[in-house]
Structure formats: structure tokens, C-alpha cells
User: Fold these one by one.
Assistant:
Number 1:
Amino acid sequence: MAQGGRHDDNKKTPEERAQFRTDRMAKELALTDEQKTQVNALNLKAIQKEDAIHSGTMTDDQKKAAIKESHEALKKDMKGVLTDAQLETLKAKKAEHKDHGKRCSKPQQPEKK
């Protein structure tokens, strides 16, 4: 079965989305069973908070700031669960993902002859 993109997230419950994130992190970071439980709880809390932000009545700028704050809180909470090596791997994966998004979103320039 093919993995869906972000647009498929709307069809999944917060619990399913948290489990998907946790499973991906478990694979990439070799999480222990205890870490999986803790990470899943943190992911669920963050997803529920972000869903509430998106469905709220804030302006786009307020939503953006609130989401950024939520991401920073999750990052801080993850530091209490993951090892230093796992945090470094996570940081590298996020940078790789961010770089990939920048490369994919740039319009292709025609070659000059």
C-alpha cells in the first residue's frame, strides 16, 4: 500500500497520525519500546494542539506563530526522551527533509542556450 502525503492526513484521526509519526521515528532512530510510548504521547499531544490551532479563529500570522511555538515545545519535550545520538539523527533527517522541500518547490528554469 502506498504511503499518502500530507493531504491524506485529513482522513486520519490524530491518534493514527501520531502513530504514523512515531513508527517512522522508531524506524529512523531505533527507539526503545519505552521511547516509542513516550514519543507517541508527545506526538499525539502536538497533533491535537496543532489541529486546535488550525480550526481556531486566529489570523494566519497568529496560527503560524502558535504552530512554531508548538514545534518548539515538542522539540524541547523530545530532548527529555531521546538520546543525544538520536537527537542528532533527527536533526539531520529534518534538515534533509527541509532541503528536499526547497529543491522540489523551486520552479524549473529553462536552460539557456
Number 2:
Amino acid sequence: MALAQQAVQLSGGNAPEILDTLAAAYAEDGNFPEAVATAQRAVDLSAAQNKKNLAEIIQNQLKLLKSMPHSMRNHSQLTNSLAKSHSR
């Protein structure tokens, strides 16, 4: 988590790939509100930078985060799904 936060700082918060990594770290840590907010920032920034493929990938991850029932958010299924989509 700390490394992802530091990378965001070093990038000036202008690298959607790094924000995506931070969102995944938040989700892994169980901080889903922050994961959703950070993923949304990554989607918005990707679109603003005309990185349509990246925006689509992150948007799909964001949908997954939002669609998971609250009781399953700590379940390994979510972490595994995010890890698979993040490695693409």
C-alpha cells in the first residue's frame, strides 16, 4: 500500500496505471470505499488522456468492485478477480 501511495505522489497523481494499482491495493486491504474512489479517478484520468483501452479495463474492475455484495468484499473471489484483471 505504501509503495503504491508513494508512486502516486511521485507521478503527481497523473498516471492512471498507478492509480489503478493503488485502487487494487486498497481493495486487497479491504478499504473498498477508497478502492472505488481511486479506481474512478483512474478511469476519469485515462479517458482524459485518451487511453480508451485502459479506461475500459479499469471501468470493468470498478464495476466488479461495485457489484460485489458487501458480505463478499473480504472474500478471496474479489481479490482473485481484481488480480486477474489487473495483470492484463
Number 3:
Amino acid sequence: MRTAPTSYTRNGWFYRQIKRVGNVAIYEQRGAGLFEVVRIRIAPACTLKGIVYPVRESLPSDSLWGTYGWTCHTLERAEAKMATLLPTEQQNPDLAPPLHEGTASGTEAA
């Protein structure tokens, strides 16, 4: 299975994974001083527009922010958010909700 990236670029920002416990990770958004806490999900194999994708780990899309991803203004807040997610992760480590579920903003105050 392809695992979630330890670094990636999205919307012009560079992200680097700084901590991971099970399926919960913290990424640092370089240059912005922000941290993103994400619940990594297992995406099922599928075919989209003729391209076959195997079972893989998946980071939350923008539409899932607030449900599977949160932005924190300090590392301490990110670690606190991560701690709240770990009991759920330990109970359901392979939880893979549909990729099309959405929610509103997931930004926490500084």
C-alpha cells in the first residue's frame, strides 16, 4: 500500500510531516508558521477517469477540512489536537469513510 507522503506541495505551500502516531499526523506548513493535524484514511482501490488507483493512504481534501484535517497556529495546539484524535484512532485504525464527505472550516484559533 502506498503510504501518505512525508512532504508535499499544495496550493504553493510546502508541507513537511513532523510527527505521526498511527493514522494521525502533524505537518508543518513552511513559511506560514502553521501546523496541520490530519487523520490519514485508507482509500479503497478505484478507477477514476480511466486511471486505476490501488488501496492507499489518503490525506484529507479541502472539502474534508474540519472533519479529518485541522489548522493550528502553534505546535503545542497541534499536539493537543493530535492527542484528542488518538483514542479514536486506536479504536478504529482502518476507518475509511467515503472520500466525498465534506464539512466547513477546520481552523483553530491561535
